[in-house]
Amino acid sequence: MEKLTPRRRRRMQRVTMAEVAQAAAVSPSTVSLYLRKPGQVSPAIGARIAEVVEALGYVPSFVAGGLAAAGSRAVSVIVPTIQNDFFAGTIAALQAMLEPAGFQLLLGNTDYNPSREERLVRTALSWAPAAIVLVGLEHGRGTKRLLLGTPTPVFEIWECGGSPIDTAVGFHHREVGATALRHLAERGRRRLAFLGARMEEDRRARQRADGFTGAAAAAGLTPPLILGTRERASTEAGGRLLAEALAVPGRIDGIACSNDLMALGALFECQRRGINVPGALAVVGFGDLGFSASCVPPLTTIRPPSEAIGREVGRLIQERLGVAEPPDRPGTIDLGFKLVQRRSS
Amino acid sequence: MEKLTPRRRRRMQRVTMAEVAQAAAVSPSTVSLYLRKPGQVSPAIGARIAEVVEALGYVPSFVAGGLAAAGSRAVSVIVPTIQNDFFAGTIAALQAMLEPAGFQLLLGNTDYNPSREERLVRTALSWAPAAIVLVGLEHGRGTKRLLLGTPTPVFEIWECGGSPIDTAVGFHHREVGATALRHLAERGRRRLAFLGARMEEDRRARQRADGFTGAAAAAGLTPPLILGTRERASTEAGGRLLAEALAVPGRIDGIACSNDLMALGALFECQRRGINVPGALAVVGFGDLGFSASCVPPLTTIRPPSEAIGREVGRLIQERLGVAEPPDRPGTIDLGFKLVQRRSS
DNA sequence: AGCAAATTTCGTAGCGCTGCGATGCAAGCC
DNA sequence: GGCTTGCATCGCAGCGCTACGAAATTTGCT
């Protein structure tokens, strides 16, 4: 029984580790060891291997490596949208932490759709990533089941206060809303409104609105007007919602927005209508985006720890690298936020 | 010679395809076939497999699959930065095209650093992606060598006019600059300036500036003032550069910016100084970002085909899926751009 | 020098899956 | 009936690499 047709399989790589080993006159194990832990190989042989790698243009296969090592150097990040400076900042910071360690980011965006989130989590797990990062503490049944059943570390970011699957890194959105309200109250504002985008889907925006309302009650103020829109945050929506708020009887004198982009739109609307900010209307945003410090007037806003979240998660992932067990119990890291007062309030 | 210590290796998966096969009383090949091409398996057996998959919570391993199939369902995307609405839009569109086909995006950002680009390309290739997407036509020596040596399809996006490695999908930035200039000239502006960010690193911003200058010469105008900054585009930088431009003797009456964010900053600066736009100064941006239609005054800008690039690349990747050979010769797809006139000019 | 200990190198057995050809079996044809 | 044809299913040999333990070599110590 001999091979009649020698099976010819499609090859993936041009140069394999075995070829490098042969050219350097060492065993494949040594090449592998050198590539992973150069310190454990004698300098002479190391140099020889390095030379051959360079000469042959060898590129290791993470696919094969991941299979053999039962785990890849990839981190799955699943966010609602990347067209949003909040998450983009976190992702960039995370990437900056992870890149030196040779990690790759696997990106997915759910567009605030739970069933897409589940599909993405499933795909993510198929890659056997070193960790999986997703936004928020609320997930669909199926998603939760998938995540609870995996040994992969799970990081839930940009939210605090619920019960995380593994580790949460974020801050309290209710507290953000309450802070905005207290600030406006301190500035003497009494008739307030909250302008939000995507309030149905974005639980965190809703939490900020709730915190705003709650703090108003605590301060003995008239319940604030809560206005929302289905669309994503934009200056256009901000302008439109402000117009709506102004049309309501009983003149408002202060607003908070779920996003600086909305706040900027409100500022534009004020400019169009000749409303003095902060004289007639105080405006507080959320996000401290690129333009917030230099618009007219500069925007008072609440700065979330976007980059800090990315950095912290990056750090935790590396810390957990070798560790097989998840921590004894789920943990939450509250990174807080900061009110940045500028001239719009 | 018997196994004294039965080698125990770390397992990657909780449930493997073999276990699914056993539970469904079929061979692993059939499970694999069903998962990849359900139509080629009889309905009865297909249903049985589906049931077992669900019951066991089986998640296939793309790592093992990719190794066996010599190629993975991942697409590497390497951009200068994701903190920029331009590229974020392209990535989102690409993701939307690819997600239904089960692809994953591998993201990297170079921060406009060529050596980081090379490192990222190397990492990307290690994943044996179905395609690799990067921004621009200019790459370091090493990067180019890596890309020329791979059978993986390479897409260079957001630029046209050079010689692509494989396929380019973008538009002409020089032409963007020229269009901005011609528009300003038509509106009767004669003393012009161009405000750019990251001009050293961002070749495309430079090309827009060059096109602006070139068209000015062609129109017989005084050579425009070209002002740049090292930092990334921001309203703050836009305001500062406008201040610089206004300080130069010989009053300017029209500006073009390398980015709508810069243009917005210029508008803010005008507002602060009481300069009438477009009366005393016409402003043209680039990007048509979210706020551009609703700022004060609404911004005339040039809209790049951000999403169209993503969609087109997504389409091309799927088209190339089974095909082993790259197209006969490199190709370029010019998606054009559009001047959107609003009230700032 | 002689021996134990430490360090460096190697051989081998998979990781979980897919592609290829083979096999079995029912249907179609002369 | 004997033959081909077509279809569904199966068996097996890897894909390229890493973990593990063992072998070979060097080092340290008396």
From TrEMBL, chains A, B:
Molecular function GO terms recorded: DNA-binding transcription factor activity; transcription cis-regulatory region binding
Domain HTH lacI-type stretches: 15-69
UniProt keywords, alphabetically: DNA-binding, Transcription, Transcription regulation
Protein name, entry field: LacI family gluconate utilization system Gnt-I transcriptional repressor
Organism, as annotated: Muricoccus pecuniae
Taxonomic lineage: Bacteria, Pseudomonadati, Pseudomonadota, Alphaproteobacteria, Acetobacterales
